[in-house]
Specification:
Rossmann fold; 4-stranded parallel sheet; 9 strands; globular
Length: 313
């Protein structure tokens, strides 16, 4: 299994089988367990280097990937697109060819998903999706890990995403849960459903795994009996010009205590962060007893250690 994963790109959770995703999650559990037993450095990537290519700023993605490489005994190098020749017109293909001669892997956080696909096409080393406008698979895998920790097997749970069902986290959650054969309920207004390409891929996967997707316009109906309630920001980077319209359209999808009380008494609240408090979520929810967002943020580190350890040669 490990040899089979070596050298693979990590662009979409849909590129992996259920067996492979479960193996990644078990590996993340091992890394977290050993970390809490005091084994902070497990040098399986000693001497290896990861390039962190950023078009978009980040807190959790940069710190967690950089620290993950340190804790695996390797080295991470921050590469701002503005500081590279990429920012002065060098092609993505040429950049990928050069970086893959120097580095053992490339983590890229970009605006357009197509850039990741081109990087992966021309790089000889694994390319890892640190976020694009379409997908955020590292976040979604950490989310599934958190659900496993807090609530158990996601296939036995009611998981509800409230807000913009067409954002990159919702897309990756849908695909990841789809591969595992679970169900996701998305509660969003018309015009904010998952992208057609993602729905087509999910339906293809679901025909094999038995996964299911439900779209429910009424958030209070959607959250009834939920085990997990998830939301994300309404205005992502690159959508600033749409801010007024998006806030107006999504206002009734705010996750507040009234909405959370429709879920199961032991339900958990999740958010990938950063949160716009007072918009998609209220303080009493994100800081309240439902919230597992800080565990969720920490789990980015342990899950990404698993991704790196399994994929980098």
């Amino acid at each position: 299994m490990v040899r089979f994963l070596k050298g693979r790109d990590f662009i979409s959770l849909a590129d992996y089988t259920a067996e492979e995703l479960w193996f990644m999650l078990e590996t993340a559990k091992m890394f977290k367990t050993r970390y809490y037993s005091g084994e902070y450095i497990i040098p399986v990537l000693r001497g290896r280097s990861l390039g962190l290519l950023f078009e978009k700023p980040s807190t959790r993605t940069r710190i967690s990937f950089e620290l993950a490489m340190i804790q695996l005994g390797g080295h991470a190098m921050y590469l701002s697109a503005r500081d590279l020749q990429l920012g002065r017109g060098e092609t993505i293909a040429d950049t990928a060819r050069v970086l893959s001669r120097y580095l053992d892997g490339i983590m890229a956080r970009v605006y357009e998903h197509e850039k990741l696909l081109e990087l992966a096409e021309y790089s000889d080393k694994p390319v890892i999706n640190g976020l694009s406008d379409l997908l955020h698979p590292a976040q979604a895998l950490a989310d599934i890990f958190t659900i496993l920790e807090k609530k158990g097997d996601p296939r036995r749970l009611k998981i509800v995403f409230v807000g913009d069902g067409g954002d990159n986290v919702a897309h990756s959650l849908l695909l990841g849960l789809g591969v595992l054969g679970a169900k996701l309920v998305i509660s969003s207004p018309k015009g904010y459903d998952p992208a057609k390409t993602v729905l087509e891929k999910f339906n293809e996967i679901a025909s094999i795994t038995g996964a299911d997707l439900e779209i429910e316009r009424d958030p209070f109906e959607a959250v009834k009996g939920a085990d997990v309630v998830y939301t994300d920001v309404w205005v992502s980077m690159g959508q600033e010009a749409e801010r007024e319209k998006r806030v107006r359209d999504l206002r009734s999808y705010q996750v507040n205590s009234k909405l959370m009380k429709m879920a199961k008494p032991d339900a958990i609240f999740m958010h990938c962060l950063p949160a716009h408090r007072g918009e998609e979520v209220t303080d009493d929810v994100i800081d309240g007893p439902w919230s597992v967002v800080w565990d969720q943020a920490e789990n980015r580190l342990h899950v990404q250690k698993a991704i790196l350890a399994l994929l980098i040669r």
